[in-house]
Amino acid sequence: MKISGNTILITGGTSGIGRALAEALHGKGNRVIIAGRRQELLDEVTGRNPGMVGIAVDLSDSAAITKFAESVKSRFPQLNVLINNAGIAGHEDYTSDSTDLTRAYSTIQTNITGVVQLSTALLPTLRAQPHSTLMVTTSGLAFVPYPPGPVYSATKAFMHNWLDALRMQLRKTSVEVLELAPPYVQTELGGPQQASDPRAMPLEDFTNEVMQILESNTIDKGEILVERVRPLRTAEKDGKYQEFLDVFASMHV
Ligand SMILES: NC(=O)c1ccc[n+]([C@@H]2O[C@H](COP(=O)([O-])OP(=O)(O)OC[C@H]3O[C@@H](n4cnc5c(N)ncnc54)[C@H](OP(=O)(O)O)[C@@H]3O)[C@@H](O)[C@H]2O)c1
Known about the structure:
By secondary structure, this protein is an alpha/beta fold. It has a single domain (7-250), classed as Rossmann fold, CATH 3.40.50.720. The chain is 43% helix and 13% strand. It has a seven-stranded parallel β-sheet, with helices on both faces. α6 links the parallel β6 and β7 (223-224). The longest helix has 26 residues, at 102-127. It is globular and about 50 Å long. The structure holds NADP nicotinamide-adenine-dinucleotide phosphate. NADP nicotinamide-adenine-dinucleotide phosphate is lined by residues 11-12, 14-18, 36-38, 41, 57-60, 85-89, 110, 137, 139, 182, 184-185, 187-189, 200. This is SDR family NAD(P)-dependent oxidoreductase. One of its GO terms (molecular function) is oxidoreductase activity. Keywords: Oxidoreductase.
């Protein structure tokens, strides 16, 4: 992916990783469109970044995605980068007799169904460009699950697997398929306390490293991996899978 001159749609651009990447890519001379549910944050981010466009959409709502994709295609026919970054996380307790799956279903809808639907709707536009990129933000938990969040972890493993297949299908087209797999990062994904959790990677450091990887154009096998996430990515190969699983399980809240 070239670093400037693109028209980029970033979902989940109202906060955390999506907002940080949107602002960094805007600063590099890209036309950036951000999407999210919170209109006040769309207004705040676009207000601080003149030229950036914000569009409100609920990516857990299939009808809303259809309408949103149509609007993006007609307003930005030159769109050549789609970054599916929006996501939610949650925990389920299967030791309980009344496991509540409400959040789990929303997580599947947002992290899987929404990504597959939006990508499918926008792929004809991406394929029509000479060079384009479809990216999804997965997680280090795609490679070793976090026991308190089985569905969340599995949505990320699903997307990793889906992206590998998609990359092969699209290899003779103009669409490059990338996976951004973050480590634990200081955002509010898991609640406000995460933004200052010293065990999490500072958002600015993460964003700077991702931008360096994008600029250096040295992405191996379509995976954007900062150094901090590499031990999870290679845990199985390194014989460390069970060790990580045990550590994660002991973090049960
Ligand atoms: N932070 C981490 O430790 C970490 C680690 C690995 C992977 N990730 C992944 O990174 C991505 C970004 O998360 P983050 O850490 O930056 O958390 P965040 O600050 O909570 O950002 C999540 C973003 O997704 C958007 N979103 C959520 N549900 C949506 C929906 N139904 N429709 C439209 N937008 C929706 C939110 O916008 P609205 O609320 O305005 O809709 C927000 O902009 C996620 O895919 C997450 O799984 C994060």
